[in-house]
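Render this sequence as a predicted structure.
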Amino acid sequence: MKLIYLLVFLAVPNLQAATNADLLLKKADDIRNPAQSYAMTVQVDDDGNQTEFEVFIKDQDKTIIVTKAPARDRGRNMLMLDRDFQAFIPNLKRSMRLSLAQKLSGQVANGDISRTRWHGDYSVTLEKETPQEAQLLLKANKENLTYAWIRLWIDKKTNRPLRTEYLGLNGKTLLKKAYFENYKEMAGDTRPSVIRIEDTNKKSSQVKIISMTPKKIEDSFFTVRNMESLK
């Protein structure tokens, strides 16, 4: 009986840590993205080359990305339904399947602006913490996500995501880092308006959220036909 009590006593801190890690992850996700459907204007800056997108997101698993600039790339739109990602190639007049991990521009992957959810897509472990920060390790619990493993630092006072390390399939190899910066009031909360993504050679690209607005979007909006026709 004493042994059972001891095992239960030892298990409680681990259970509490897991619960806190999951809650921290959800709060950080809620800060990054509105729970409701919304539209964003996003600018990707890659070494002075700028690309602008209009992004429509619903339920974190439906996204249409409309390329607005430069003019030569207009019509190269993208659609994500769950983890199925397609891009329309105007010159070929057809859509083709891509992966969320493939490059969109510079260091920015398709999934960096189309599938932005952590909570629900990853199992989470609390690795370390200080009075100021919590360090979480995220392991993908679904196939074909943008990153298999993510190490995430969160400000414990504000629940804001601070920075990440994106890791390879072994959970150890560093692929890229990201920094969540320039917090502003957008869509009813204070959210990062700049995500700076840096590879291991220190080459970086910036995702700048120019605007973010709650918007009612019907499920019927997220179709291949609609993606191909939007300008």
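Summary. Confidence is low (pLDDT under 50) at residues 2-15. The two ends are 70 Å apart (CA to CA).
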